[in-house]
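Example record

The entry below shows one chain as it appears in the dataset: sequence first, then structure tokens.
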Amino acid sequence: MSYIRRNIRSNPPSAKSNAYKTYVRSSVENATSVWSPHSDGQINQLEMVQRPAARFMKHDYAQTSTVTNMLNDLK
């Protein structure tokens, strides 16, 4: 994720979303078939990847904004 942040920092949100879906989400989705996130710990680990990525793609780091809404907007 840090590679994507460094290299597409100033790109529009659509480019950030495409990069995330191509590089990060595809890797995470491939891994879920192996470890099947059914326990709370595994679900939390998965969300720890998704939440910072959602803030990055929306470029919204305010403490008053909710990441859940961002995730719903990004689908």
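Notes for this example: The longest helix spans residues 13-35. Helices lie at 2-7, 13-35, 40-58, 67-74.
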